[in-house]
Amino acid sequence: MIIENTGLNGMSSDLGHLDESAEKLGFVRWQWEYYRATYDLKLEDRTNREDYFLRFNVRAIEGKLESAHAVLQVESVYIGRATFPHGLDYESPIPQPILNAATQRLQELKKLLA
């Protein structure tokens, strides 16, 4: 599920600041290559014992990800239910408490990047 109207799409930050800000909120930069990266935050629904991942993609608009001074731009924000063994289901409905937690973290991230 793509999360619209987060205010993050198009925001830019240098890699060092983005990594620090995202890490404060629990995001981890998992996938990355020279020009793009993906940050994930695991959200656990204890009611139904499901895991969900809030994810956002960034792309380098100046430099490469091997430099803390590279400038990255947020491209998209989405959330999915974890599936065994290594997938995400983006079509499943997301429980409201998980969406609320995701929205809160995204707003906090937006404040840190502003």
Explain what you see:
Helix content is 25%, strand content 41%. The chain has 114 residues and is of the alpha+beta class. Strands 1, 2, 3, 4, 5 and 6 form a six-stranded antiparallel beta sheet that branches. A hairpin with a 3-residue loop joins strand 5 and strand 6. The chain is globular, with a radius of gyration of 14 Å. The model has no long low-confidence stretch (mean pLDDT 93). It comes from Paenibacillus glycinis.
Give the tally of β-strands.
Answer: 6
Distance between the termini: 25 Å
Unreliable stretches: none
How would you characterize the largest beta sheet? 6 strands, antiparallel
Shape: globular
Distinct helical segment count: 2
Beta-strand proportion:
35-45%
Helix content: 10-25%
What is the string of helix and strand elements?
EHEEEEEH
Helix/sheet category: alpha+beta
Overall mean confidence score, pLDDT: 93
Radius of gyration equals 14 Å
What labels would you give this structure?
single chain, 114 residues, globular
